[in-house]
Design goal:
Blueprint lengths: L9 H12 L3 H14 L4 E7 L5 E6 L6 H7 L26 H8 L1 E7 L6 E7 L2 E8 L4 E7 L6 H5 L4 H18 L4 E6 L2 E6 L4 H9 L1 H5 L1 E8 L2 E8 L10 E5 L2 E2 L3 H10 L11 E6 L5 E2 L10 E2 L2 H16 L6 H8 L10 E4 L3 E6 L2 E6 H15 L4 E11 L2 H17 L2 E4 L4 E8 L7 H13 L7 H13 L9 H11 L15 E5 H7 L3
Parallel strand pairs: 1-7, 11-13
Antiparallel strand pairs: 1-2, 2-6, 3-4, 3-6, 4-5, 7-8, 9-10, 10-13, 11-12, 14-15, 16-17, 17-18, 18-22, 19-21, 20-21
Helix pairs in contact: 1-4, 2-6, 6-7, 9-10, 12-15, 12-16, 13-14, 13-15
Length: about 525
């Protein structure tokens, strides 16, 4: 019987490996830009024809390669950065990528022209399917030019799944933008079908973000930097009142673009609100000792593994909260985070639709959702005054359904900690003799409604006590539609800015919208 299991040929093995590294034209651009950066380039130019299959070219002014180095570089398992096994876990640049050039040569025709400063002329080599087809001296300034033609010529199945020119170009643009954010001191240019698409001159990070993503995006962010030992978390993140429905997010670990769930979760949780409709934008950089991470867990190095995920998680949360003033600030410091010289007790305020408070500030306008703001105030009061009760003159007796009884039993300890005093009063009947001090009253329908809300929010609550505290705070808060006097509105704003997180209600909805004079003037075309 003929064996159903066979050993793959070296050619097929090489093509499979190449397919893992070179997914699409953008993968080639990424690998070649990384090579250029490692070669000390300060100017990198990328040229693309069509969807990238006909031709790709990357030109840099790095230190170049000799003829011998070029011939070695196109062979499998070659690198300038890895000498011993220990180096696998001590990578300080773009690291072990021994398959990059060799993988490209396996699936395309590659021409390399390079010159080192110590030699009068450069060298040219043409490679296809691991075979050197031509090599000769060439004229060139110091640096390297790599031209890739007929991409995936030996992998028609992969070529069939590539997208149109606009789609593939978008992936290439994403690669260049990521690299440009990491290296603002490097000039990047992208040309598509002889038309210049991108040109980022040398600058700093702030001006690179401005050039790439625009002033509106940059103005919604705040810079942070947090260092612990050899670990540094820095960058720009959304101000607590400037979330977007369509955020832009960039994560870089040791100058490498990464998709990391730990960092993303830490950033979102740092704002202390559940991310539903709006989530933060950010351009963040995490620098860690190379021995602390493994960058070789993904063929294209798009993911890493940390030795201690909880340390990284706490580093980021603490950095963001201290940097953005989400926790640990006094009331007056919070006013300054939001607006210099802003005093809620003295500002001009007015009410819209008996639901929104407008407050004039020196630089613009604040719009405050009165219910959401009061919810934040009452929630933190409830969490602080655990167990503070007020006795009911007339106890409330509630006859419960099976579902209501189930949730009362499940949440009874939490409700008692919040200030309720509840005692059994017959089969499926309970008597409420005291309620939390923040509540004005508690009727049978209101108590049943509270149990129903606990049931609905059971799946998403951080814990049972917090869930119950949120419900109580909601019921204790001023509702939309309530008329408020000037002093009441000013007092509400003053109390809001004395909370630990004035920018969001306990359920995650924003409490404040900020409009600057500049934004208003732009909307009116001034």
């Amino acid at each position: 019987m003929e064996s159903r299991i066979i050993k793959l040929s070296e050619d097929i093995i090489a093509k499979i490996a190449a397919g893992e590294v070179i997914e699409r034209p953008a993968s080639c651009i990424k690998e070649l830009i990384e090579n250029a950066i490692d070669a000390g380039a300060t100017t990198i130019s990328c040229e693309v024809k069509g969807n990238g299959v006909p031709e790709l070219k990357v030109i840099d002014d790095g230190f170049g390669m000799t003829q011998n180095e070029i011939e070695i570089a196109v062979q499998p398992h070659t690198t300038s950065k890895l000498k011993t096994e220990k180096d696998l876990f001590n990578i300080k640049n773009f690291g072990f990528r021994g398959e990059a050039l060799a993988s490209i040569c396996k699936v395309a025709e590659v021409e390399i022209t390079s010159r080192v400063a110590s030699e009068p002329n450069g060298n040219y080599i043409k490679v296809r399917d691991d075979q050197i087809l031509e090599k000769k001296p060439a004229s060139r300034n110091t640096g390297t030019t790599i031209r890739i033609k007929d991409l995936f010529c030996s992998m028609p199945a992969r070529r069939k799944f590539l997208k149109s020119a606009p789609v593939e170009l978008k992936h290439i643009i994403n690669v260049i933008q990521n690299m440009a954010l990491v290296y603002p001191n490097v000039e990047f240019t992208l040309t598509h079908d002889d038309k210049e698409i991108i040109k980022f001159p040398k600058s700093d990070l702030k001006h690179r973000i401005l050039a790439m993503l625009g002033n509106d995006f940059l103005s919604s962010l705040a810079p942070i930097e947090h260092k612990v030992l050899d670990f540094v978390f820095s960058g720009y993140l959304s101000k607590p009142f400037s979330f977007a429905e369509h955020p832009k997010q960039f994560i870089f670990i040791n100058n490498r673009t990464c998709r990391d769930r730990i960092i993303r979760r830490a950033i979102e949780n740092a704002y202390a609100v559940p991310m539903k409709e709006k989530i933060p934008s950010f351009v963040v950089f995490l620098k860690v000792p190379p021995e602390f991470i493994d960058v070789n867990v993904h063929p294209r190095k798009e993911e890493v593994r940390f030795k201690d995920e909880s340390f990284i998680y706490n580093l980021i949360i603490n950095g963001i909260r201290m940097g953005l003033g989400i926790k640990g600030f006094t009331g007056q410091e919070k006013y300054q985070v939001l607006e210099e010289d802003f005093d809620p007790k003295e500002c001009e305020v007015w009410q819209l639709h008996n639901s929104y408070i407008f407050a004039q500030t020196p630089a613009g306008l604040l719009i405050v959702d009165q219910h959401a703001a009061h919810e934040r105030i009452m929630f933190e009061r409830v969490m602080k005054e655990k167990g503070t009760s007020q006795k009911l003159l007339f106890p409330v007796v509630a006859e419960l359904t099976e579902i209501e009884l189930k949730f009362l039993i499940e949440y009874k300890d939490c409700l008692i900690k919040l200030g309720f005093e509840i005692e059994e009063f017959g089969k499926a009947t309970y008597r409420i003799t005291a309620i939390p001090s923040v509540l004005k009253e508690c009727t049978v329908p209101e108590f049943k409604s509270l149990l129903s809300e606990l049931q609905e929010n059971e799946a998403i609550s951080e814990d049972k006590f917090t869930n119950a505290a949120k419900r109580v705070a909601c019921r204790a808060s001023v509702m939309a539609g309530t008329i408020m006097k000037t002093r009441e509105m000013q007092s509400l704003l003053d109390q809001l800015f004395h909370t630990n997180n004035p920018y969001f209600c306990p359920h995650g909805r924003p409490t404040i919208i900020k409009l600057t004079r500049e934004e208003l003037e732009r909307k009116f075309g001034r």
